[in-house]
Amino acid sequence: MSDLMKHLVEFTHCDLAQAEDARRMMSLSLLDWAACGRAGAAEPVSRITRDMVLAEGGQGAATLFGSRACVPPRAAALVNGATSHALDYDDTHFAHIGHPSVAVIPAALAVAQDRDASGGDFLDACLVGFEASIRIGTWLGRAHYQIGFHQTATAGAFGATVAAARLMGLTPDQTAQALGVASTRAAGLKSQFGTMGKPYHAGLAAQTGVEAATLARAGFQSNPKGLDGPQGFGPTHAGEGNLAALDGLNKDWWILAISHKFHACCHGTHAMLEALASLPPPNTVDEVVVATHPRWLTVCNIPAPATGLEVKFSYAHVAAMALSGVPTGALESFSDAVAQDPALVALAAKVRVEADDAIPETATRVRVNGQEAAFDLDAPIPLDVRQEKLLTKARALLGAEADGLWASIKAGPDLGALT
Amino acid sequence: MSDLMKHLVEFTHCDLAQAEDARRMMSLSLLDWAACGRAGAAEPVSRITRDMVLAEGGQGAATLFGSRACVPPRAAALVNGATSHALDYDDTHFAHIGHPSVAVIPAALAVAQDRDASGGDFLDACLVGFEASIRIGTWLGRAHYQIGFHQTATAGAFGATVAAARLMGLTPDQTAQALGVASTRAAGLKSQFGTMGKPYHAGLAAQTGVEAATLARAGFQSNPKGLDGPQGFGPTHAGEGNLAALDGLNKDWWILAISHKFHACCHGTHAMLEALASLPPPNTVDEVVVATHPRWLTVCNIPAPATGLEVKFSYAHVAAMALSGVPTGALESFSDAVAQDPALVALAAKVRVEADDAIPETATRVRVNGQEAAFDLDAPIPLDVRQEKLLTKARALLGAEADGLWASIKAGPDLGALT
Prior knowledge:
Strand content of chain A: 5-15%
Oligomer: homodimer
Largest interface: A-B, 56 and 56 residues
Distance between the termini of chain A: 38 Å
Order of helices and strands of chain A: HHHEEHHHHHHHHEHHHHEEEHH
Number of domains of chain A: 2
């Protein structure tokens, strides 16, 4: 077995006693995932994949977003993966270049429900799967992404396999076999961005994890060198093979660098929104100045947005919403009516956007009535603050349901109360 | 839509009135596929995948090799693909660099059974799927294969999608969407050769076809440029983009160059076996000379094989079997007992193998007691002769069942009588 495989297999079954902060971050991502999944259950890609597996039926204890039916675990993994990524509002890891939760959690949940695992074991499996997908995504590197592969789908499949293998209690050899199966099944291309293919990738990754572990458990013999050996997944998919990506497993938790979306608009506007929120709310607004890195001016600086979708890409209008108390974490805030609201349009007209290439891409500086503030998305967010922000987001997505969801995550989690 | 996609989509729904020979070849490959599938139903990869979907259960009219249960079409496609390729005794197309039947037929059968299609419509769908997979495999080309991808899995997925799309009566746009889904789901690496991963690839391809068409029919929006557009499947998977591979669709039928295996041993020995069979059976054997291309001497020239598996790679022993009337189309002929049979060992000692680089790789020349014969596998086999040879093979695999199977293929085919 290669060093990479040895590290991965050992990590799959490691003791997590020292991973307190990582486990806490995992439970926050679980809250965010469940909120995104519930809020996305009516999206077309969610309905289409769900209808497919509901028409198939079958025995199983795995639950689905948007249905009271229980289905076999492979089916649930596919549907819940696609559903939780349907809004593209779930978490991101920038080094991994992907969305870890939507590939890993659906696989772990489906297997955990199928095997009646404890909430704690489920959360641990999510955590090792998360971390493994982040590490494998980084091992594949930017070259893999640039040529056209989508790490959420590809690295995600390996993370999902690790999570499923841990919950099934696979032996080290079976774990390697499962990763071998995932190596020949993992797929997903960036050319699907902007279509239902993107959220579908998350479902494919999750399903691959469940299927690979299920087959390996039954004695399936694959090539356990299929990930990094000759003509393995990495070498055939433009993987960089950054072995440093495996350093410090079960010690340095890269999950702690997860980025959550707190606003349902373009990521380029998020630093501005955080900076505005740090200022005392003004009674009247005379002047707003937003200074940002020049690259964003071609991305999210639509001066007079006509639709809700355009609002998501308008510094001025989003700033006006925030200054008027419109909840930017709520999907429905980005409506055509909001785009055309006269008070917001008038306020947006007072916002001046300036380019400043001394400001990092992740940061924005604002000035409201002469008072300045700045925010950098790279700044660490204390877990308590993050928790409050994620609860606010969940409430914006789900209303009162959000607090019940968080209570059932803290109490276990309760596997039956997530979807 | 690109020219490639236009051709493919149009071909999916084409009129097949002029394709008599191709349809006949398709029915022969169907016989061969069903015989290989039935004979492979007890193999470990068949049992493992079948057990997985039987444990899931579900509603569906699709049948499985090795079980009386009916399951949902996606499940049947996966299992029947893996099962029919388990023995690696199914058909090959050398330009496609893959095994068309095991990817395409399971998808077509599952969808046809699910929709209660006629036998004729099923056979037509198999034919367009076959031809499409051969053309796409050739479009991807040798570079795709050499870098590590397995056309049976990759090109096979597009063929399976075409077959399923035809049977479901998808619109041209839906067909393009289905091919878009297949583009982001197709996968399979040659590094799995020699493991259960290889037959599993055929199942993956078949299942991809069923799933892609099912989703497209329900309104799934993918990227219809996902096959050959920027960062599409071809460009990201070392595809050569040989557009000539699409020439003469529905006119020149490349399926007619399908190669069937008539002997359950290394392909390198097949030309010798055909040459020997063309000579009158000798009463006694004094001397046998086998002249073949030098590359085969490192592949299938084990002089004194100790096991049934080694016999498959021994010119001398396989020649002795043929000269003694041992059926080389039967799997059980390649046993340890046959390897150690004193009469066969004595006869094998009379066989001299010579290298001759003037002989093509596909040909062999033999001399028995001074009488010469030669055979080239590239030589066309008349359909009547091929039919007889495939029936002989099917009888060797299935016994008396083979004739019933052939009768039910000729009479429809009868979809319920194939697996």
